[in-house]
Design a protein that fits this description.
388 residues; alpha/beta; seven-stranded mixed beta sheet; four-stranded antiparallel beta sheet; 13 helices; 39% helix; globular
């Protein structure tokens, strides 16, 4: 038996990322415009960095609260009062070491080996892998692609439920599709979850990136006390803090100690000096978030208008999130196309094959970047598409 063969089946089943594959192929090329990853081009702002730096230099480097320092959890409660119009005590909040960590802990909390979790696809691939590595079975429900946009069919969702189903994973606004659930969609999904006694894991990381104005509809708008919903979120997108790896969970107070135990045995808590930066982001960062959203709106319009005008791209301006999900006439293998586009245009896109069932014909572009850079990338892509 080789060293590799001696590893656990769970570890060996973790697939390579189809996004990272393209990144590693092209990283560092001069003149490259990278639209493949879900992050913008702005670094974390100075007022957030300074708070973390000051705390670090003040010696806040010791073990800390497993579920987050009280100031951090109170700042999260204030954030939800402002943006979601809900008042929750801090025992509903747990701080995690990234949004991915939050998702993993939510999956661990509500599923066991042999259970099933239904998710909407195309989707961010890490979600599916987190479920599979944990021993549960991810069950895909393909969103319907209609007139350049996506819709969820509630009847198809309910038809997938079996006695082994324990949870639904709902990401809205969606990465990569931009699909944004209506309030009625969320009410219908919640009705199904209640009917079958299921948990919902709600990934609402892009809730503030809602281009119709205001935040996107949330399960907070339709839920009642006692509903089994866990919210996973992250500081990455709103405050340009992708590299910080800071996230959080909102859930019923009754399971707070369970979440705390899962944190203890996975990360043992987020560094306190990093939490100081996150507190300032929550308390003082609304204007920064607003500017990020304004920037994304301009860049979304530039990218989508340019590509739609070729009459070779089937897509719509997304209602939410940070991505254009592009179905290009003449491209049938998006993985091969992503490498070819890098070579011929120096624009980095993520292949739709990385996003699971329903994603193969598409390419994903993240538009949270300088509008001038997006204009250049859109022009290069349009020229490429018109030559196919």
């Amino acid at each position: 038996m080789t060293i590799l063969e001696s590893l656990s089946s769970r570890a060996l089943s973790a697939p390579p990322s189809g996004i990272i594959e393209v990144v590693q192929y092209a990283r560092g090329r001069e003149g490259l415009i990278p639209l493949w990853a879900g992050e913008g081009d702005l670094p974390s702002p100075d007022f957030i960095n300074k708070a973390a730096s000051d705390a670090l230099m003040a010696g806040e480097t010791f073990y800390t609260w497993q579920r987050g320092i009280p100031e951090m959890r109170e700042a999260l409660a204030d954030f939800y009062r402002r943006h979601f119009q809900v008042s929750l005590p801090i025992d509903h909040f747990s701080v995690t070491s990234s949004g991915m960590h939050a998702i993993t802990l939510c999956v661990q909390a509500v599923t066991a080996p042999g259970d099933e979790l239904i998710y909407l696809t195309p989707t961010w691939p890490n979600i599916v892998s987190a479920v599979g590595i944990g021993g549960a079975t991810p069950v895909p429900l393909e969103l319907d692609f209609v007139d350049g946009g996506f819709k969820v069919d509630i009847n198809k969702l309910e038809a997938l439920i079996t006695p082994r189903t324990k949870a639904l994973f709902i990401n809205t606004p969606s990465n990569p599709t931009g699909w944004t659930a209506t309030k009625q969609d969320l009410a219908d999904i919640l009705f199904v979850a209640r009917k079958h006694d299921l948990w919902i894991i709600a990934d609402e990381i892009y809730a503030l990136y809602h281009y119709a104005g205001g935040r996107a509809p949330s399960f907070f708008d339709v839920m009642e006390e006692g509903d089994r919903i866990l919210f996973a979120n992250s500081f990455s997108k709103n405050w340009s803090m992708t590299g910080w790896r800071v996230g959080w969970i909102v859930g019923p107070a009754e399971i707070g100690n369970v979440i705390g135990n899962l944190i203890q045995y996975s990360s043992s808590g987020l560094a306190q000096f990093m939490q100081r930066g996150a507190v300032v982001a929550l308390n003082q960062g609304d204007d920064f978030v607003r500017k990020n959203i304004e920037r994304a709106t301009i860049s979304r319009d530039i990218l989508c208008d340019t590509l739609i005008s070729t009459n070779r791209v089937e897509t719509r301006k997304p209602d939410g999130a940070l991505y254009a999900f592009l179905k290009v006439d003449g491209i049938t293998d998006s993985r091969a196309a992503a490498f070819d586009i890098v070579d011929k245009t120096l624009v980095g896109l993520a292949p739709g094959t990385a996003f699971g069932p329903g994603g193969a014909p598409f390419l994903r572009a993240c538009f949270l970047r300088d509008p001038n850079q997006i204009r250049e990338a859109a022009g290069r892509l349009a020229d490429y598409i018109l030559k196919l």
